[in-house]
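re: that chain from earlier
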Amino acid sequence: MNSPWIAPEIAEAAQAADAPDAAARALKIERETHKLEKRLCRQVGQAIMDFGMIEEGDRVMVCVSGGKDSYGMLDILLKMQHRAPVNFELIAVNLDQKQPGFPDHILPAYLKQLGVPFHIETQDTYSIVKKVIPEGKTMCSLCSRLRRGILYRVADELKITKIALGHHRDDMLQTFFLNMFFGGKLKGMPPKLVSDDGGHIVIRPLAYVTEKDLTRWAAHRAFPIIPCTLCGSQENLQRKQIGNMLRDWEKQYPGRIESMFTALQNVVPSHLMDTKRHDFQNIRTTGVPEPEGDTAFDAPDLPTPGAPGGVQLVQL
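^ sequence. v structure.
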């Protein structure tokens, strides 16, 4: 379905047959970059439409950390603002947690250059975390809770209606497997939700965007990346393991990541085992064919490993 959120395809100029190699390479790079930009805008626009992320008159707080993902989110949302069918404001917000060595001049200078309204909140959560967490233990959990509370307060002060976070498709899949493997839950990272304090709507406009595309876009746009190792905390080993697992699967079976992400949008509660989500106690025969019925004695038809795109259509 066509929508103002999604730009129409723009015809690409044909390459001249006698163009020199250097010019041909430059033209190819330009074309690929143009296609990348269109894809990013299309995917962000589609996510906004599918999940009703941004509405008329919204004041969207774009949380900017200094990493490639949040820079990319702000960059694409600024582009979307010009073509959106609704009017909304963007306010970039950064939390300076006073980590030693944090270059606090980079983000203000960049945001001023963009001309986007912004707010830098300075709170020394680093010292608090260092006092509470024993040496050598990961600080991420407490740091995240403190950061979340501060950002909610800032959102109230700025009269924000939506809080935008820069998590992408790969983050969502990793979170799903982390919860399944280590938390015993089929739970992911939703594109839109109510905050844990019940007072804010949190959105993830990059829900359909891959990390590799964000990496390419960050290189093209030359974002002033601030390293995420300033606090010296331990890396989340479990998340790293899941990330490596997903990358290995994608190399061995191209298309598997796409299939798994699609599965997050096609949940069948009657074919799982959660009695809170499906009333197994009161299942009765109806005599009416059930499209989602269980083919109990049939072997499931699954895609052939290594098939093109990782997907095989099965005629039922």
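Confidence is low (pLDDT under 50) at residues 9-18, 306-316.
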